[in-house]
Amino acid sequence: MKLTDLTFAEGFIRMCGDGWDQGWHERNGGNLSYRMKPEEVEEARGFFQEPGEWQAIGTSVPDLAGEYFMVTGSGRYMRNVPLDPEHNICVIEVDETGEKYRILWGLTGGGRPTSELPSHLMNHEVKKRVTKGAHRVIYHAHTTNVIALTFVLPLKEEVFTRELWEMATECPVVFPSGIGVVEWMVPGGRDIAVATSKLMEDHDVAIWAHHGMFCSGEDFDSTFGLMHTVEKSAEILVKMLSMRPDKLQTIQPEDFRNLARDFHVTLPEKYLYEK
Ligand code: 2HA
Ligand code: ZN
Hints:
By secondary structure, the protein is α+β, with helices and mostly antiparallel strands. It contains 10 helices and 9 strands. The chain has helices at residues 7-22, 38-45, 85-88, 117-130, 144-149, 157-167, 171-174, 190-199, 220-243, 253-263, and strands at 31-35, 55-56, 68-72, 89-94, 100-106, 137-141, 179-182, 205-208, 212-217. The structure holds Dihydroxyacetone (2HA) and zinc ion (ZN).
């Protein structure tokens, strides 16, 4: 028995491989984090190594004090996670101030958690609060079609949400709260983490212009499924725009309202404007 045989670790590792298979993780692109349940921490504790030094997170997440996360490693390739998990991912603990972390397992041979740790943890902090603890997964991927769209659509949440909803009937049911958009910013630091976590107050998806996406969810399946649904919708939009710049027909605002009623979702009216 190893830590990587625990159910949550198996789900984490599989998701890294699934993202690689989709083509979203060239080189060391993208990263994944999971907020462990108390019973999972107890299951994993017997496998922890001598704790590493406390290190600065680079931002402050007081509502995550004492929480444990499984996270991909900085500079590590998603492709290699299923092949050699111990070397490419880690378990970290956040200290009592929410300013520092230390490594308890993994990254054998040295290394640090993902360069996007500030964004991951600030998103987790917001989602833990607004979902009353339900959301546990934050996923960042370099999704080709969504990135392409950030060069041709206005960087507005109303436009991205509405255009992507129109591309597939399931979309408003899968992401009823819409998609936030962050204009181009330097990745890896606190500023982009603050901007992204603000959007996570009202959305489960945030696009980083010319870079990729962040998704939040309760478990690995629903978070991966959300990323996959948004990116597939973006692929349809790219194909549609490649065939002709306008639509001959599409799903109309009143159709969305009827869909919302039958599928018991709330679709904010700000996305159902007349064009
Ligand atoms: O290389 O995706 O945003 C990891 C990243 C940085
Ligand atoms: Zn990235």
